Amino acid sequence: MTIGKALTIAGSDSGGGAGIQADLKTFQELNVFGMSAITAVTAQNTLGVHGVYPLSVEAVVKQIEAIGTDLGADAVKTGMLFSSEIIQAVSECIIRFKWENIVVDPVMIAKGGASLLQNEAIAALKKHLLPLAMVITPNIPEAEVLADMSIDTIDDRLEAAKRLHQLGAKHVVMKGGHGREEELVDILYDGVEFTYFKGKRMVTKNTHGTGCTFAAAVTAELAKGKSVKHAVETAKRFIQAAIEDDLEIGSGHGPTNHWAYQKRQRGVK
Ligand SMILES: Nc1ncnc2c1ncn2[C@@H]1O[C@H](COP(=O)(O)OP(=O)(O)O)[C@@H](O)[C@H]1O
Ligand SMILES: Cc1ncc(COP(=O)(O)OP(=O)(O)O)c(N)n1
Predict the structure, then answer these.
(1) What range does the record give for the signal peptide (predicted)?
(2) Residue nearest to atom 18 of ligand 1 (CA)
(3) Which atom of ligand 1 lies nearest, measured to the CA of 140?
(4) Which residues neighbour 92 within 8 Å (Cβ) at sequence distance 6 or greater?
């Protein structure tokens, strides 16, 4: 039996809604073998981030090498990378193992405001990692930082996507969660055309980890050999189901329901 293999290089969320934990749950739900390299441990729950403990560059590289020299990966997702040193080391590993299906989720700030990327690491992200990305999945505030512009209108989002493509990312998904439109739209740009993925904006506070989950679903589909457009379409349906099938866990911004998509596929209510 051959199975797609996906690697996530990201931070650990003790609360289980975002980071490595969200990624591995999503890989499993989309029938892909999941592997991880942890960059930092966070003490986190639905109320916020209570501590950030980065791992050494050596520890990150050793984990990636263990995977690259044995199991291999059909697609790789990066999430919280924390420092320019980790970004540079991760980029070198990606080149060394000739991994091509790279999904970069440029995680910067958690919902509660905690910084998950040092300010001085933004330049390293742009210089080393963006040119390796098959897909980059910024939310609006992240796109503003990376494209160096403010984003108010849909036209601004298209312009930001063009700028990020010029920085080397082959595909850009401008996520629309932070927008205000009633029909929420994520926009894919491949350097030639824009494709719009629309969905109902759910009114809920339980959206912790939506960005991680969405990017992990894109990664899982790429690991199965699907096209980027197909991967984004599936990821949109996956996250929509995960938000709609509300769990109500914790007293703050709760996690999404990672098994809701499978339930729908099987026709389970
Ligand atoms: N309230 C919502 N209703 C439906 N989909 C949402 C909602 N909030 C976010 N999403 C979806 O979740 C994904 C992540 O969106 P976004 O909030 O922009 O990113 P992040 O979680 O990185 O801040 C996107 O696919 C977006 O369309
Ligand atoms: C360890 C870790 N990584 C990433 C995030 C950010 O997750 P995201 O999907 O953007 O969701 P919110 O945190 O914004 O709800 C995180 N919190 N922790």
Answers:
(1) none
(2) 177
(3) 18
(4) none
As a whole number, mean pLDDT of residues 111-124 equals 91
What does the alpha-carbon distance between residue 64 and residue 128 come to, in Å, rounded to a whole number?
Answer: 17
Which has the minimum average pLDDT: 67-71, 168-172, 178-182, 199-203? 178-182
pLDDT value at position 268?
79
What is the ipTM score, two decimals? Answer: 0.98
CA atoms within 13 A on the CB side of 191: 11
What are the boundaries of each domain within the chain? 5-265
Question: Reduced to 3 states, what is the DSSP secondary structure of residue 99?
Answer: coil
Q: Supply the pLDDT for residue 266.
A: 86
Amino acid identity for residue 141 in this structure: P
Q: Which CATH class is domain 5-265?
A: alpha beta
Torsions phi, psi for 17 (to 5 deg):
-95, -25
Closest CA to 56 of 85, 22, 77: 85
Contact 38 CB / ligand 2 (< 6 Å): no
The minimum-distance atom of ligand 1 relative to the CA of 107 is: 22
Phi, psi of 75 (to 5 degrees): -155, 150
Please report which helix (H) or strand (E) contains residue 85, including its range: helix 84-96
CA dihedral 190, 195, 199, 201 (to 10 degrees): 60
Among residues 165, 101, 159, 162, the alpha carbon closest in space to that of 131 is found at 165
